[in-house]
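[User] I have long wanted to understand how a fold can be written as tokens. Those tokens are not coordinates but codes from a learned vocabulary of shapes. Could you go through the record with me and say what the backbone is doing? Thank you; the sequence and its tokens follow:
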Amino acid sequence: MPQTQPIYLIRHGQTDWNAENRLQGQTDRPLNETGEAQALSNGAFLRANLSEPISDFDFVASPMLRTRQTMGLVRRGLGLPEESFQTDERLKELSFGDWESHTFAELERNDPGVSQRREADKWNFVPPGEGAESYEMLLQRVRPWFDEMMDSEKSAICVSHGGILRCAFRLFGNHSQEEAAEMAVPQDRIAVLEDGAIRWL
């Protein structure tokens, strides 16, 4: 039977590195003021638009600092205590390896043509460095989490990362690898996975 209880998927709010177009990956960075406002706004949007009792929801976030901060503020926007949620390691952003903390302009100066090589197969490209991942590797890491959530009888609110949302749209949105790799993943909107399909609210 297809999943019917909705899973609301939220990307963490903006950080200074987001604003500077620096690759964060699995480097912890805090939200900036814009990111805090985005998270509170997303929580207020849910509070105004959810039809299900909020007591029936599971809350789960990536264990990274920016996602935990976002979840706390989403819960504040919902009128709930900030600290009461679970984390799951599978929801961490993909690792950019040696590229983390750099902009693509900086990477290009050190290795001319690297951006073009990545764009040739962005979904499957693995950056240099120990533990670095492609989007396809991330999808294989997070797929079991989605399977578990689809089998659950509870609605859920999840705060994770741009890469996780790309995987969700690849798995449930009929997006090709190229489309999922290039799609915009806003920090001030919410996606919902329901009845085996995903869409932006």
